[in-house]
Amino acid sequence: MALASRNIGVDDSRTRLVEAAEQLMREEGYAAVTSRRVASKAGLKPQLVHYHFRSMDDLFLAVSERGAQQLSEHLDRALASHQPLHSLWELISDRNTAVLASEFLALANHRRTIRAEVARYAKRYRSVQIELLSLTFSECGISRTLYPPAAMALIMESIARTLAIEASLGLSAGHADAIRFVKRYLDIVEPVRSPRKSSKREKLLADLSGRGGPVPRK
Fold first, then answer.
1. Quick one: 49 and 70 in the same domain?
2. Domain termination site, one of 32, 53, 74
3. Which domain holds residue 94?
4. 215 belongs to a structural domain
5. Which of 10, 32, 53 is the last residue in one of the domains?
6. Interhelix angle for 95-108 vs 10-28, to 10°?
7. Is the pLDDT of residue 99 over 50?
8. What is the CATH number of the domain that holds 15?
9. Tens digit of pLDDT for each residue in 123-140?
């Protein structure tokens, strides 16, 4: 379905093209993102795609930047919540977020420019997860030798992405058990309680905020 038509300016038409490309990636995968398909979904003329973007890679990068900015804002709120690990899981397990991330990973295997951008963001995002897990483990007295924060961050991310991919294929066996398993783990390391005053936690949140969240903003 094409996006609703309305009187549009140059900046607005670019935004609509980016939104249309993102929607196609979520619904049909990155291979469906062609200039004609994007223009049709946005309710615009195909020539506008080439007017705003020198190549389809530039369009994909615009979609990536938009998604990263939105995810950064969501992550800022998650980190500031009373249970940041629970909030982080809700964020990374969101189906739309996971599906789009999977599409960009697949696209990155074929496009060098996209690969560099995806890698830059993924490294920053993973470091935030590891920092938060490491701090929480220290506060709760959980062994970081038995439960390495980097490994737990990877496991959580992998489970979330696998659930999203399989759900898009109509597969659901084991999903409910996997979600309960993750939530039991989170309840152990981050029980419901009033957050303790922690200078380290406050410094982490301040540092992340000062650095512009997980995505270097241009």
1. no
2. 53
3. 64-210
4. no
5. 53
6. 90
7. yes
8. 1.10.10.60
9. 888 888 888 888 888 877
pLDDT on residue 129: 82
Q: Which of 16, 26, 21, 75 is nearest to 217 (CA)?
A: 75
Contact 124, 135 (CB under 8 A): no
Indicate the pTM of the whole model. Answer: 0.73
Same domain, 30 and 126: no
119, pLDDT greater than 70: yes
For residue 4, is pLDDT > 50?
A: no
Give the Cα-Cα-Cα angle 64, 69, 73 (nearest 5 degrees): 145
pLDDT in tens, 162-196: 888 888 788 999 999 999 999 998 888 887 655 55
How far lies 70's CA from each of 58, 66, 122, 213, in Å? 19, 6, 15, 11
Q: Nearest CA to 47 among 13, 12, 4?
A: 13
Are residues 75 and 124 both part of a single domain? yes
218 within some domain: no
Structure-block tokens of residue 132: 């938060």
Percent with pLDDT over 90 in the chain: 33
Question: Within a domain: residue 162?
Answer: yes
Provide, for the chain, the percentages of residues in helix, strand and coil under a 3-state DSSP scheme, each rounded to the nearest 5.
Answer: 75, 0, 25
Same-domain check for residues 87 and 191: yes
